[in-house]
Amino acid sequence: MPLNKSELIQKMSYECNLSNDDADMCVEIFIDEMKKALLEGNRIEIRGFGSFKMKDYGGYTGRNPKTGEKVEVKPKRMPFFKAGKELKEYVNENNQVEAE
User: What's the rounded Cα separation, in Å, for the pair 90 and 100?
Assistant: First the structure.
């Protein structure tokens, strides 16, 4: 089951003994600051978790999968996440426990 934003706010509220409004404000500020940093071209690094950066993708000629028609795909910038070593190890260790 995915963890959505409202569930994250509820968990923060409970774990940090905050009101739902305060936890909501913390999550909003965190997300907004990450968006601003990425738009400014900055890299975001959260030790033990991973890093975010913007990646530029060039345009290319693709195909519409339904019609087979050629389609020009414009160049774009997309956020890119790279998991950190600790997160990878944590996920792999805990994934093995569940598989057994």
Answer: 16
CA 85 and chain centroid, separation: 16
Q: How far apart are CA 61 and CA 71, in angstroms?
A: 6
User: In 10 A of CB 34, how many CB atoms?
Assistant: 15
**CB atoms inside a 10 Å sphere around CB 43:** 12
| 61 strand-pairing partners | 72
Which tens digits make up the pLDDT trace of 54-80? 999 999 999 999 999 999 999 999 999
> pTM score, two decimals?
0.75
CA distance 53 to 55: 6
Cα 35 to Cα 32: distance, rounded to the nearest angstrom: 5
Question: Could you read off the pLDDT of 19-59 as tens digits, one per residue?
Answer: 999 999 999 999 999 999 999 999 999 999 999 999 999 99
CA distance 15 to 22: 12
